[in-house]
Specification:
With 179 residues, the protein is mainly alpha-helical. The chain has 11 helices and no strands. The radius of gyration is 17 Å and the shape is globular.
Length: 179
């Protein structure tokens, strides 16, 4: 990927691109492209994109909420109040995504909620919590990820990536044993 550092540009130079990026993010039919553009806008502190993502966190299909949360995590303090509020949302998928974003930011409340979900009876919640904790680098997610692989239920790239994000020799050994 390409890394853009604001310090590499003259003051206002990146901000001039915001209207075009915003228009492209709103109109592109490609979900991956939309998320990349939203990530760029969030990194530039674009408040309307942050607000739109906060709304999407509550309304998007459950499987789309974790990617939205990871973008919101990059918004830092600007998104934190909405994410903390979302921890009390009646929908488990919204609570899970908000906890993920907060955990990625290093917030203890988000990490605690995700760790609690690792023992949930709901397989989706357990799996999403493990992936979110992996994004935050928390090794406590490993047992859920390992169980998924041991059962043969999941050898997908997301699970493998999550294990790799945690790192460590035991995790690397687990990845070698998959293939």
């Amino acid at each position: 990927g390409v890394t853009v550092r604001a310090g590499d540009y003259a003051p206002g130079e990146l901000e001039a691109a915001i209207p075009a990026l915003s228009r492209a993010a709103r109109t592109t039919p490609q979900q991956t492209t939309k998320r990349v553009l939203q990530r760029a806008l969030v990194s530039l502190g674009h408040e309307p994109t942050i607000e739109e993502l906060i709304t999407q966190l509550r309304e998007a299909p459950p499987n789309d909420r974790l990617p939205i949360a990871t973008i919101l995590a990059e918004a830092g303090a600007k998104a934190r109040p909405a994410l903390v509020t979302a921890l009390a949302d009646p929908q488990v998928h919204t609570r899970l995504a908000a906890a993920a974003a907060l955990a990625i930011q290093g917030n203890v409340r988000g990490s605690k909620m995700l760790r609690e979900l690792l023992t949930s009876d709901n397989a989706f919640s357990r799996s999403e919590a493990a992936h979110a904790l992996a994004l935050a680098g928390d090794p406590r997610a490993l047992h859920v990820l390992r169980e998924s692989i041991d059962r043969g239920a999941s050898r997908d790239s997301r699970t493998i990536r999550s294990i790799g994000l945690i790192g460590g020799e035991a995790e690397q050994s687990l990845l070698r044993n998959i293939y």
